[in-house]
Task: inverse folding
């Protein structure tokens, strides 16, 4: 019905619109010359307004869409077929939202549909196959985690010569959904947070999962995971403040997977001024979390990368910060929370309460040392994850400073230890049993 070039963040695609007999529109986003070719990389993407356009974290559809576009663009030859009419596995947008209500009552994604008298999966793939046939592809490599799509395309006459999984890093809010699809619908499971702990024998490889532990957000604050990487002698930076990179790429990938699993990631303004981090998800396929900065006087440089458009940013400050600085941040699309101050800066319980009231259930705290120490000292940590790099640097920045503990019996107790291996680095995780 129409054909037009469409520029995207992944390059220019030749977009062709097809109208199906059911009046639903199918978009074929074509990259390169695919006619009469074998093994063309193809993604059949089912419409998901909530995930694709609105960024919902209840599913992984948006992350899969972006990853598929990136994969096709990297190959410079492929097709993404966007199938409207597939919302909610074919039950429609309103019914999908109704199933969400059932899921919030404790039913999984399959049983929620059945309780409402809806099919578990009402999609068909004949029209998508017709689109691919119209493009004159000889055979395809299908990007999917769903075996039903493979079977449906083959039954419709498409020669699927290979299936390439499209797993994404799960979020705490969609991990159950993904696990249900894996367990009950034979989908490929998620990556990025599926780790195997070391029990005995050779250390297993890690791609990332139980690191979050059992998420239990309180009413007055989020569930807090404290994560940092240190040298064997307990330093998170050298005496000059250099911290790049203490850990290896595999450990940093796990950090990104943890970010993708949480609603928000928090650092102090000192970390921003020293390291200028992005705090986004770049090493895994997932959604970047809300970035939170503790900054009692708004020292945050206007050029800081954390203020960029890569993800949403919130700054938590106090009334010690000028109204002009707060206004300037607001005008840049940065949310500013003003909370009471404490002798060490921002009042942490008040800051966490404000985040919880705004909807944050899971919070990853990444530093620096002052924030790490304050969070532990205030008893605000639920889970501790520490990467240990095989190096010694001597004098430098300690991960944890003075907590005021004078007897061993008063120390912060860690329980339910897990140990993982990441190339040369070690990763340890505990639940915090009792904070002082």
Result:
């Amino acid at each position: 019905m129409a054909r037009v070039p469409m520029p995207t963040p992944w390059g220019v695609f030749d977009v062709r619109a097809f109208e199906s007999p059911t009046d639903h529109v199918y978009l074929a986003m074509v990259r390169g010359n695919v006619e009469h070719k074998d093994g063309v990389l193809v993604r059949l993407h089912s419409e998901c307004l909530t995930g694709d356009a609105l960024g919902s974290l209840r599913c992984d559809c948006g992350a899969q869409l972006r990853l598929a576009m990136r994969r096709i663009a990297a190959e410079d030859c492929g097709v993404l077929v966007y199938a409207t009419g597939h919302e909610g596995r074919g039950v429609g947008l309103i019914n999908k939202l109704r199933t969400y209500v059932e899921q919030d009552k404790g039913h999984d994604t399959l049983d929620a549909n059945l309780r409402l008298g809806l099919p578990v999966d009402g999609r068909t793939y004949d029209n998508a196959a017709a689109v691919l046939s119209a493009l004159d592809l000889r055979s395809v490599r299908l990007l999917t985690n769903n075996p039903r799509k493979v079977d449906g395309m083959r039954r419709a006459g498409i020669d699927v010569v290979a299936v390439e999984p499209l797993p994404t890093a799960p979020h705490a809010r969609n991990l159950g959904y993904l696990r249900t699809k894996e367990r009950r619908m034979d989908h490929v499971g998620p990556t990025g947070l599926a780790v195997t702990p070391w029990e005995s024998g050779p250390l297993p490889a890690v791609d990332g999962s139980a690191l979050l532990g059992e998420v239990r957000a309180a009413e007055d604050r989020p569930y807090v995971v404290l994560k940092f990487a240190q040298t064997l002698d307990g330093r998170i930076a050298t005496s000059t403040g250099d911290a790049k990179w203490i850990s290896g790429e595999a450990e940093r990938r796990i950090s990104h997977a943890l970010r993708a699993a949480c609603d928000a990631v928090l650092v102090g303004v000192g970390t921003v001024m020293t390291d200028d981090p992005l705090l986004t998800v770049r090493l895994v396929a997932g959604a970047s979390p809300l970035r939170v900065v503790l900054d009692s006087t708004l020292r945050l440089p206007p050029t800081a990368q954390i203020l960029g458009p890569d993800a949403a940013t919130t700054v938590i400050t106090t009334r010690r910060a000028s109204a002009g600085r707060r206004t300037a941040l607001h005008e840049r699309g940065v949310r500013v929370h003003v909370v009471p101050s404490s002798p060490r800066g921002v009042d942490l319980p008040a800051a966490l309460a404000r985040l919880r009231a705004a909807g944050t259930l899971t919070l990853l705290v990444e530093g620096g040392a002052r924030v790490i120490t304050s969070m532990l000292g205030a008893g605000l940590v639920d889970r501790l994850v520490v990467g240990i790099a095989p190096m010694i640097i001597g004098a430098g920045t300690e991960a944890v400073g003075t907590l005021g503990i004078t007897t061993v019996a008063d120390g912060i107790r860690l329980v339910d230890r897990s140990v993982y291996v990441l190339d040369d680095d070690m990763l340890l995780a505990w639940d915090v049993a009792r904070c002082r």
In short: Residues 192-208 have pLDDT under 50 and may be disordered. The radius of gyration is 24 Å.
